[in-house]
Amino acid sequence: xxxxxxxxxxxxxxxxxxxxxxxxxxxxxxxxxxxxxxxxxxxxxxxxxxxxxxxxxxxxxxxxxxxxxxxxxxxxxxxxxxxxxxxxxxxxxxxxxxxxxxxxxxxxxxxxxxxxxxxxxxxxxxxxxxxxxxxxxxxxxxxxxxxxxxxxxxxxxxxxxxxxxxxxxxxxxxxxxxxxxxxxxxxxxx
Length: 190
Prior knowledge:
With 190 residues, the protein is an all-alpha fold. The chain has one domain (33-166). It is 66% helix and 0% strand. The chain has helices spanning 13-56, 58-67, 73-96, 100-124, 144-166. It is elongated. The model is unreliable at 14-20 (pLDDT under 50).
């Protein structure tokens, strides 16, 4: 290949390949850094949107929670009042990027509970309104497609949680974020 004569004005194929691979690597790196950001914003907006109607209509949301037939009657009202505010707080934290390790763990746990309750009721054959984004119980009942949508959000949340917890930063790194241990390593015995 070194003895090959190239037409005037053309570069060696290897240098072009290196440049292409280099830009592909650069774009892959950009995509990998943007994907967690966009997923975080998406999940934050979903939580904010989900909380809105529930906060405005706690009585209607209490009926939706009661229709799931999972919680004891005494727990329905407190859950219907507190849960939307938790969703609002988590959505806000996700959008602004505050307290991400804890926010992501709580968001993932909340989505797992929502999915479990929805799939449990679908498997029991109950016609319940999801209550995910609206407090209207008269609307169409939840279907397996609703479960697929919610499981997709859960998978995205799990991936984002793992991504955030495995990325060293001052917020979640045991070494203070600078790569050096906080305390010197213990003496090793010979």
